[in-house]
Fold each of these.
Amino acid sequence: MTTSTAFSPAVLDLDLAAETDRICDSIRAQSRDLKRRGVVLGLSGGIDSTVCAALAARALGANRVIGLFMPEEDSSPDSLELGQKVAAWLGIRSFVENITPLLEGAGCYRRRDEAIRTVVPEYTPHYKSKVVLPPATQGTYNISSIVVQSPEGVQQQKRLPLDAYLGIVAATNFKQRVRKMMEYYYADRFNYVVLGTPNRLEYDQGFFVKNGDGAADIKPIAHLYKTQVYKLAEYLDAPADIRRRPPTTDTYSLAQSQEEFYFALPYHQLDLCLYGYNHGVPADLVAPHINLKPADVELVYKDIRTKRTTTHYLHQGPLLVDPIDLTF
Amino acid sequence: MTTMQNEIRQFVIDNFLFGQSDRQLGNSDSFLESGIIDSTGVLELIAFIESKYEVSIADEELVPANLDSIDRVSAFVERKLQAKGAGVGR
């Protein structure tokens, strides 16, 4: 461990070859222990799923990895195109499952739009929308706002009251849950494990939907900071346009970065803050490396704590009254 | 303790603690740090304040200094009501 006096961005440096071997060993051992013959994962065209697919292919062989593309009405066309590029690069099997009809059947879009109309009455399905948070350095509560854009391109932003917020989130979460349902279909069909693709920021800060993208049998990069995932992508020689693509949620119809939806800070800054927080590094040692004031880093530390508290529920499995012994 | 502090305390106990007031809740205790209220809970608290005291809370007022304890909420609402009474409120 680095001492706080020697803090620099180099704390996130990895022995990339050794780390790749370690993760591949783990994927092999875990798949074997779970008595499954391969890996299924959703490919979003993002850096995390790309690195996970490459690691799984390296660990088990490309013929034991299945990549799924699961576009829906609000997905960016880039996601499918880049995802297919990853599958072709690795030579893995892949399937396209358009999940729009399933989401329509569940009332995802209708319920979401009804909730939006409680704050923006003129909203129609022809509008685009996204949910955003204030910056972590603002020191306010993490209260979400909705941004809508009319077909004429006029944008407005409104703070979400309780019912509207819960309504939009509950409806939108169908997307992650339907995708996971589809991944488990393929996992059952081929006797494979489902691989979840969260990086450390997402896992630690609870940026996932419980029983949606949060569900998986193995999560091979959950211990890696996002900066490290990018380095691993380079080491694994992932396609350059995927390495250059900014992180996106690809959940709402308006383009939305992960920081405005959830993290409230770009990943390269948040990585160092989270590392600093985890290792007890004082804010004033972290601040100069990420162009923030020490007071701002203190606010980010506070936000890290708040998000851990708030999302504790997401990490919990079902709670029992009495523990049950399942030893075999 | 004022009536308003009592009302806020009762709301917090009923809504966040399922009516179980055995947990010590001081008037100055931080809702966030004591783990009683998370960010969704803040939305519930805002809805309660706006409806019960008929005040409107602006985005920039949504800070822990105004909302993170019984004392702070009560002082904040008092200020809002005074401003409203003086005709300068929202």
Amino acid sequence: MSTVISPAAAQDGFSMPAPLQVMLRVNGTEHRLSLDPRTTLLDALREHLHLTGSKKGCGLGQCGACTVLLDGKRVKSCLSLAALVEGREITTIEGLAQGEELHPLQAAFIDRDAFQCGYCTSGQIMAGVACINEGHAGSPQEIRDWMSGNLCRCGAYDHIVAAIQDAARATRSVQRG
Amino acid sequence: MHPFTLERPRDLSTALALGAQAGRTDATAEYIAGGTDMVQLLQEYVRRPDRLVSLSGLLDNRIDIGAQGLRLGAAATMAEVAAHTAVAEQFPVISEALLNSASPQVRNQATMGGNLLQRTRCPYFRDVGYSACNKREPGSGCAAIGGENRWHAVLGTSENCIAAHASDLAVALVALDAAIEIHSASGQRTVPLADLYRLPDSTPHMETVLEPGEVIAAISVPASPVARRSHYLKVRDRASFEFALVSAAVALEMDGPRIRQARIALGGVGAKPWRVPRVEAALAGADLNPSTLRGAAALAAESAQGRGGNNFKVQLMQRAIVRGVEIAGART
């Protein structure tokens, strides 16, 4: 068995901590992983489960590109240690569509051209889905306030707000039946 | 991140026996709850504990309101407390402080106990590329004194540290005379929240009075005639998702057009959440006349010391008090 020493660990003169057995429930599927305790939820999703839709922007909770849902609530996956969300229901951008049918907010992002480079988009969509579910998408101002945890350095904000408004309207009309 | 072992105890007594400690640079074991601040500190090598002890699932998240006041379980998230309608109605300053903190995502993750124990946003503390930070490395100096200090404190600082306390929630709670319930293996004790925090003096690396193996289990806010007519005014560089340059938590009991009693705490300006008792005393019996309010607010600045970049805060905090009192006073 080979021992892997990360550059940071080697520099500090410490060996790797013992791995933890962690069960993650992602998009309805259970995964059993052996993880370094330092693994964030974001890194577990991207590097271990190869669900690369969730993006790593800052890694410090500032940009929102890593937003996923935890038990239905939006969180920054870069700020959670994977081992501490064991067994909870995690939803990523990959789990949003129903088969080939896009989630209404995914469709609205395309209709409204709500992105340029696309790096922030999956985080924007996950946060936007939560924003609508929370009932915080009543006006453009309210959307801007409740979407402030997601940065878009291309500046696609106007289109993002419009897409969320569209999807919120569609969701409300579906709820009214 | 520096390598650490991660303990996931099944019960609180095991977690307490592991003896981790918050807010101390010399602690080799730390507790982690929501993780939103701790993971940042770990990622940046600001904190390098050998052991992390998780409090996940070990503390309650109940929100109880009764004749005695409000009790918040330490595991309640910022979002849960902010969304509680009775808290918003009876203790608006608490809801407002929370809703004006962080981002919706972080408010879903961060807990009450962890919010109170978040570390300062001083950029020199947060960046290990700077060697001088007495809070991070005792005895190394303070890069903020003589450096970029627009965000720093003007009250309660020392020649060793001018970092400002970052929590909005703590400012609102200190205004309302909240206390914290601290649990340890040997029992529990209750401490006024204002006394949780130490001033930097010569030991800025010791931020709280928590001993090893002590955790915050709950926050209690006494019922008070000032709680309902309260307001959190936050002044910052961006309208959302930004820390306070200056904030004022104001709670008033009115007697017709006059203030019967006022409780005021300031954020963004103090080494810890900063009560201003002299301002409160000057406002007792006063009306809401702007010049009266300005005169009272000036008392907050008496011991204030700007360091260059943050000189503006000395004026700004007085104006925040005036506006906060006006807004709270206009509430019915």
